[in-house]
Design a protein that fits this description.
The complex is a heterodimer of chains A (335) and B (96). Chain A contains 10 helices and 13 strands. With 335 residues, chain A is of the alpha/beta class. In chain A, strands 1, 2, 3, 4, 5 and 6 form a 6-stranded mixed β-sheet that branches. A 4-stranded antiparallel β-sheet of chain B has the order 1-2-4-3. The chains are: A alpha/beta (335), B alpha+beta (96). Chain B: Belongs to the CTAG/PCC1 family.
Chain lengths: 335, 96
Amino acid sequence: MTVVIGFEGSANKIGVGIIRDGEVMSNPRRTYITPPGQGFLPGETAKHHRSVILTVVREALDEAGIKPADIDCVAYTKGPGMGAPLVTVAIVARTLAQLWGKPLLGVNHCIGHIEMGRLITRAQNPTVLYVSGGNTQVIAYSERRYRIFGETIDIAVGNCLDRFARVIKISNDPSPGYNIEQMAKKGTQYIELPYTVKGMDVSFSGILSYIEEAAHKMLGVGQCTPEDLCFSLQETLFAMLVEITERAMAHCGSQEVLIVGGVGCNLRLQEMMGVMCKERGARLFATDESFCIDNGAMIAQAGWEMFRSGQVTDLPDSWITQRYRTDEVEITWRN
Amino acid sequence: MAVCASENGSNGKLEFVLKVPFPTEREAGIALQSLSPDPEPRKGGITKNMDVSGQTLSVRWTADEARILRVSVSSFLDHLSLVMETLDAFGSPVSQ
């Protein structure tokens, strides 16, 4: 049996998860929530993580009912993400690995999402849509790499949603995206927004500027409601994501789609993707918020695969990196 | 914890030296290994060197400007206290 503890803190969530051969033994998490209208800044987020990380580690061990001696490997997020929060979490992972005398393993955050999605849904070889506050990529596996078929050329889809939420002061609790999703259900009027698919890639920054201006103009004079804007934004963004996912599937001859990342728990996105999959006779795999949203178990799971295939990270090489593309990682555990 | 900051006359650079005593040599070594892998985020204008002698972790900064030095030292102290809290919370190191 191989037991891996995973540390994740590349954005505003701090999570510690323990995996034993495909079984999630524990996966506690805390979220740094900012007031409406405000995003999370690296320094403040790191401070939040520092203040709770040891409590979360203790919870993870207690819930799993294991002792440090039972752990085989300590995995942590090497990148990509915000520098200050990444360093904070890496420092604790390094210290514990040394205290406990266990090997350390630096994990690519995106690979963590993909491997956790594969574990939970049992999807074999899916086309992956990875959508979160920091990343938007369509990915398929080939020749020992998760290859990026399409991606955003500017901001991530979740960043577009988060920043729109700030403009009209939607609460960040539990997350701006969740609140937009709830408000969108009450939207009745579709407001046409720019639709910016560029080949296999997508662009969201222009849509954000457009809807910001529309919000100021239309809400002031009562031409539409905030709910209408939430609805229209979701429909437009998600249609773009479904389009590039479908194109990647056609290209790869794939009959499986896996949605991962924080935006992936949006049920409207899952519904729209489901319609496309049904038309193509393909299967859709998605997970709920406990595994879609950043968590420690996903880092433990990718770490488990890496460790079992013989990888470890020496302490001097355990530096974090804010930029770390999904396709930089050699996938040593798949054929 | 002994600290001194001075302006080195010969090259006009600011220097800052920090000495951190740990209960054991091994804990000082753990702190060094935990705190040293990440390079300074800023390119140029500052250098930081760390080493351990006995139970003491020593850090020496050289910087062009006080502003840059302050940011680096302050973030180092945050990281140092996190290492110390982790050592306190999860007990004495396994002897090897």
